[in-house]
Amino acid sequence: MAVRCGDSAERTDSVDTAARIVDAAIALAEETSWEAVRLHRVAARSGIGLAEISRHFREKDELIDAWFDRADAALLALAAAPWMPSLPPRERLQRLTMAWLEALAPHQRVTREMVVNKLEPGHLHIQFPALMRISRTVQWLREAALLDDHGVRRALAETALTAIWMATFAYWLGDNTPDAAQTRHFLDRQLALAERAALLLPGFA
Fold first, then answer.
1. 130 assigned to some structural domain
2. Number of structural domains the chain divides into
3. Are residues 23 and 78 in the same domain?
4. Containing domain of residue 154, as a range?
5. CB neighbour list of residue 142: distance below 8 Å, 6 or more residues apart
6. CATH code at 185?
7. 80 and 54, same structural domain?
8. What are the residues whose beta carbons fall under 8 Å from the beta carbon of 107, sequence distance 6 or more?
9. For residue 62, with 0-12 CB atoms within 10 Å meaning exposed, 13-18 middle and 19 or more buried, which class applies?
10. 79: closest CA among 137, 141, 148?
11. pLDDT values of the chain reduced to their tens digit, one per residue, 205 residues
């Protein structure tokens, strides 16, 4: 079925509006803190009414997911680079993970506050979805890195990569070195260890 021009324009407007809402929330958080952000203040900053905001985000926490979606998009954009398939898997994973983090880097403090907010006691209703979101990002990372393992090998590799991704993200949240140099070193070390460990398992060589 043909896509009507009006439908395409409407989707574009919706994406643009959602982006403006997220940008306004991030700007407010930079001025104060993520905890202090309120949707009515986002409405005032963005010039988008609460009713319109509610059509894009059911609650404030969904703004966090939208912020991380931007990092997913950055990862996938790098995956389209024509030279990516020529790199060894370990380097593909390293570059893609750092691209994800670099997309968040301009607002590292706010990102850290978002994570802390999700981990607060009593927030179980947002912690389980957060785990599912981590899984989604790792799945995109695997696809972008062109990983094709199957069966038990895939399960083990996915578990290891999830652990590495979470550890690297946690490390990056507190890394203030230029260009996240320490995080790059940490990630490369973790990937190297995982690579060596995989070679020791029967049938993984």
1. yes
2. 2
3. no
4. 59-200
5. 158, 161
6. 1.10.357.10
7. no
8. 26, 29, 30
9. middle
10. 141
11. 454 655 666 667 788 999 999 999 999 999 999 999 999 999 999 999 999 999 999 999 999 999 999 999 999 999 999 999 999 999 999 999 999 999 999 999 999 999 988 776 555 455 555 566 788 999 999 999 999 877 767 778 888 999 999 999 999 999 999 999 999 999 999 999 988 887 776 554 4
* The pair of three-digit structure tokens given for residue 179, joined into one six-digit string: 């260009």
Location of structure tokens 């978002």: 114
116 Cβ contact list (under 8 Å, min separation 6): none
Q: Does the residue 186 lie in any domain?
A: yes
Amino acid of residue 81: A
Identity of the residue numbered 161? L
Token pair for 132: 């599912």
Which positions ≥6 away from 148 have C-beta within 8 Å? Answer: none
Residues 52, 58, 61: CA angle, nearest 5 degrees = 120
Residue carrying the six token digits 């403006």: 20
